[in-house]
Specification:
By secondary structure, the protein is an all-alpha fold. The chain is built from 5 helices and no strands.
Protein backbone atom coordinates (compact mmCIF):
# COMPACT_ATOMS: atom_id res chain seq x y z
CA UNK A 1 0.00 0.00 0.00
CA UNK A 2 2.89 2.33 0.71
CA UNK A 3 4.24 1.75 -2.79
CA UNK A 4 0.89 2.61 -4.38
CA UNK A 5 0.61 5.73 -2.25
CA UNK A 6 4.18 6.73 -3.16
CA UNK A 7 3.40 6.33 -6.90
CA UNK A 8 0.16 8.30 -6.53
CA UNK A 9 1.92 11.13 -4.69
CA UNK A 10 4.92 11.27 -7.05
CA UNK A 11 5.46 14.89 -8.09
CA UNK A 12 2.45 16.16 -6.12
CA UNK A 13 2.54 19.02 -3.64
CA UNK A 14 -0.14 18.13 -1.04
CA UNK A 15 -0.75 21.83 -0.34
CA UNK A 16 -1.39 22.71 -4.00
CA UNK A 17 -4.99 23.44 -5.03
CA UNK A 18 -4.88 20.83 -7.79
CA UNK A 19 -3.38 18.06 -5.64
CA UNK A 20 -6.48 15.87 -5.92
CA UNK A 21 -6.48 16.07 -9.71
CA UNK A 22 -2.78 15.23 -9.94
CA UNK A 23 -3.18 12.23 -7.61
CA UNK A 24 -6.17 11.05 -9.63
CA UNK A 25 -4.24 11.34 -12.91
CA UNK A 26 -1.27 9.48 -11.39
CA UNK A 27 -3.58 6.63 -10.38
CA UNK A 28 -5.30 6.53 -13.79
CA UNK A 29 -1.91 6.31 -15.49
CA UNK A 30 -1.37 2.96 -13.74
CA UNK A 31 -4.53 1.34 -15.17
CA UNK A 32 -3.91 -1.14 -18.04
CA UNK A 33 -6.27 0.59 -20.48
CA UNK A 34 -5.28 -1.43 -23.56
CA UNK A 35 -6.14 -4.75 -21.89
CA UNK A 36 -9.43 -3.35 -20.59
CA UNK A 37 -10.45 -2.15 -24.06
CA UNK A 38 -9.64 -5.53 -25.65
CA UNK A 39 -11.59 -7.40 -22.97
CA UNK A 40 -14.57 -5.08 -23.51
CA UNK A 41 -14.47 -5.73 -27.27
CA UNK A 42 -14.38 -9.48 -26.59
CA UNK A 43 -17.39 -9.20 -24.26
CA UNK A 44 -19.28 -7.19 -26.90
CA UNK A 45 -18.45 -9.73 -29.61
CA UNK A 46 -19.67 -12.68 -27.56
CA UNK A 47 -22.76 -10.70 -26.54
CA UNK A 48 -23.52 -9.94 -30.19
CA UNK A 49 -23.07 -13.61 -31.10
CA UNK A 50 -25.33 -14.81 -28.30
CA UNK A 51 -27.89 -12.12 -29.11
CA UNK A 52 -27.86 -13.11 -32.79
CA UNK A 53 -28.37 -16.73 -31.79
CA UNK A 54 -31.40 -15.72 -29.69
CA UNK A 55 -32.74 -13.31 -32.34
CA UNK A 56 -31.85 -10.27 -30.20
CA UNK A 57 -28.53 -8.94 -31.52
CA UNK A 58 -28.95 -5.36 -30.32
CA UNK A 59 -30.01 -6.54 -26.87
CA UNK A 60 -27.02 -8.86 -26.68
CA UNK A 61 -24.63 -6.01 -27.48
CA UNK A 62 -26.36 -3.66 -25.03
CA UNK A 63 -26.35 -6.13 -22.14
CA UNK A 64 -22.73 -7.10 -22.81
CA UNK A 65 -21.75 -3.41 -22.90
CA UNK A 66 -23.49 -2.64 -19.61
CA UNK A 67 -22.80 -5.82 -17.62
CA UNK A 68 -19.96 -7.58 -19.44
CA UNK A 69 -20.10 -11.37 -19.14
CA UNK A 70 -23.06 -11.15 -16.75
CA UNK A 71 -24.98 -9.67 -19.69
CA UNK A 72 -24.45 -12.97 -21.48
CA UNK A 73 -26.52 -14.68 -18.80
CA UNK A 74 -29.24 -12.06 -19.16
CA UNK A 75 -29.54 -12.58 -22.91
CA UNK A 76 -29.49 -16.37 -22.50
CA UNK A 77 -32.38 -16.16 -20.02
CA UNK A 78 -34.53 -14.21 -22.48
CA UNK A 79 -36.79 -16.30 -24.75
CA UNK A 80 -35.96 -16.62 -28.41
CA UNK A 81 -37.66 -14.05 -30.58
CA UNK A 82 -40.06 -15.91 -32.85
CA UNK A 83 -40.05 -15.06 -36.51
CA UNK A 84 -43.26 -13.56 -37.90
CA UNK A 85 -45.20 -15.74 -40.31
CA UNK A 86 -44.37 -15.16 -43.99
CA UNK A 87 -46.63 -12.83 -45.95
CA UNK A 88 -48.89 -14.56 -48.49
CA UNK A 89 -50.11 -13.01 -51.72
Amino acid sequence: MDELLARAMQGVDPDAPDAFLRIFLNLMAQVPWTALIWWNLFFLGVGALLGWWRGRTAEGVAWAFVLGPIGWLVILRRPRRSMPPPLRK
